[in-house]
Amino acid sequence: MIFFLISSAAFSQENDNAAILKIIFTKYYKTEKVIAKGRLQLLNFYCKKAPNNEEVLEVISQSDLLKKNAAEIKKEIIVGIDEDWSVAYNLLFDNQNQYLKSKVNACLSFEEFKTVSDREGLNNQRLLIINKPIYFDNNNFA
Hints:
This protein has 142 residues and is mainly alpha-helical. It contains seven helices and three strands. The chain has helices at 13-28, 55-60, 64-68, 70-75, 86-93, 98-104, 110-120, and strands at 43-46, 107-108, 126-128.
């Protein structure tokens, strides 16, 4: 589980989510080749937000900043969420970051990923899953 500490100014939460996606995509898709005809894309993006769970508590125990905001963070642990990244994803790639978009491909559901993976018949496909961000300290950190 990875926590990114991001200062937020007067941006909406969707802008913050798009900024988080940009940071994560830039890091994890950095070594991916640009998608071109006939080239297999090995790393896919899971469009649903994975729910936060008790693993967050373990991460909190290892950080002084998170310990100070533990009560606020624990309120954000919602196991049964049904949200996706599509708004932030579209906001990130709407007329900007086109080079990065050429590496990321599209949001996939698990069923779509399974279809792509089964079609290739190889065990080299990867699915990048990102948890629902937890904003705390008056939305100064995520």
